[in-house]
Design a protein that fits this description.
single chain, alpha/beta, 5-stranded parallel β-sheet, globular
């Protein structure tokens, strides 16, 4: 399968990237942007594989040669793929990118640097990277991803060629799931509930627990008779997110700690030198930041699901006859729509959007969710 087959519903981006991969001197810096589910990282990874592909012009991005396979697995000698599980990319990490970008290619035509979530770089960190993007070595190509161009420092985005991606249509995601072996009816339902997010659609199609959790989340807003019930609902959502973060921590933290101690030459429980204690503290801080991000990402996913419910409510109130995303909610959805007005629903949508913004700040997730959920009480 060609690496280009992973770009679902992106004809314009596909054409531009295929042409660029065949150029002898492609643009030295690219910025992939698009909303969640648009496949920013997937598109950037496919382009990286095509840039380093061993095939002739016009065939690059085959997905089967050794270079394509090693890029996709993250083991290619000339490919640096950085992902962060923290809330921010640090200055030290940016400096490491700059140093590694100076290396000449070992086996391929280019040195390709893929940095996901460039929006997580504070201004000081972005400025470290800026010089390398302004005056890159002739053999280095930078690929950055972010939700939108506005999320990246203007001096960086002005030096990058933009690749603007859109969320694939429900039909495109359904077709991708069916080609992956899922039954058409289940694939269509998962695609509709995911709102075009292929990764979410796959999880819903394959994971029964994920489907049950989503079903519980989308029923909450339309079943809150009192403020007390709203507070309990907020607490339930926060607890689920905390449990997911804790499950990840229990599976990884001890293993990472043991690996670090082994690499430093210590047995568990042995007294560490001051320098090594600081390394252990740094690991613990990174683990805390990762847990926070997992919790935040989980809560944001819940908010995106709740927005689909309000979209359905607004559809019923305005009588647009558009297809309902959450038709499985049945009569409860119709009753909730009949009990309110379109103005109230729009205000609730604004409240959900505000909560999503607050999650990215230092606001308390619990307080933000409590304030939002009380607004759903009829």
């Amino acid at each position: 399968m060609s690496v280009w087959d992973t770009l679902i519903g992106q004809p314009d981006a596909l054409t531009a990237l295929q042409r660029a991969s065949a150029d002898e001197r492609p643009t030295h810096a690219w910025l992939f942007t698009g909303p969640p589910g648009a496949g920013r990282e997937t598109a950037a990874l496919a382009f990286a594989a095509a840039l380093l592909c061993e095939r002739e012009l016009g065939q690059r991005g085959c997905g089967t040669c050794r270079s394509c396979q090693t890029v996709l697995s993250g083991s290619h000698a000339d490919f640096v793929h950085f992902r962060t599980e923290k809330t921010q990319i640090t200055i030290d990490e940016a400096r490491d990118f700059v140093v590694r970008a100076q290396d000449r290619p070992a086996v391929g035509r280019w040195r390709v640097m893929l940095i996901e979530d460039a929006d997580r770089m504070p201004e000081r960190t972005s400025n470290v990277l800026l010089k390398a993007i302004e005056e890159p070595p002739p053999h280095t190509i930078w690929l950055l991803t972010a939700p939108s161009p506005a999320d990246v420092l203007v001096t960086i985005r002005s030096r990058c060629r933009p690749v603007n991606l859109r969320v694939p249509t429900t039909d495109a995601v359904t077709a991708a799931l069916v080609s992956g072996g899922h039954a058409p009816e289940a694939a269509e339902l998962a695609a509709r509930m995911s709102q075009g997010n292929l990764e979410v659609a796959r999880r819903l199609a394959e994971d029964e627990d994920a489907r049950k959790r989503r079903s519980r989340v989308v029923r909450l807003p339309i079943s809150l008779p009192t403020v007390a019930a709203a507070m309990e609902a907020a607490d339930e959502l926060i607890s689920i997110a905390e449990a997911e973060a804790e499950a990840d921590a229990s599976a990884r933290n001890d293993t990472e700690r043991a690996a670090l101690l082994t690499s430093l030459g210590y047995e568990d429980g042995e007294r560490l030198s001051p320098t090594h204690r600081s390394q252990l503290r740094q690991l613990e801080e990174d683990q805390k930041r990762r847990a926070k991000r997992i919790q935040t990402d989980t809560l944001d996913r819940f908010l995106a699901d709740i927005q689909t419910v309000l979209r359905d409510v607004l559809t019923l109130q305005l009588r647009t006859d558009s297809a309902l995303i959450n038709a499985h909610l049945g009569q409860g959805l119709y009753d909730y729509a009949a009990a309110g007005s379109a103005e109230h629903t729009l205000a609730r949508l604004d409240a959900v959007a505000a909560t999503r913004r607050r999650l990215q700040s230092n606001a308390s997730p619990r307080l933000a969710f409590e304030a939002m959920m009380t607004g759903f009480v009829r």
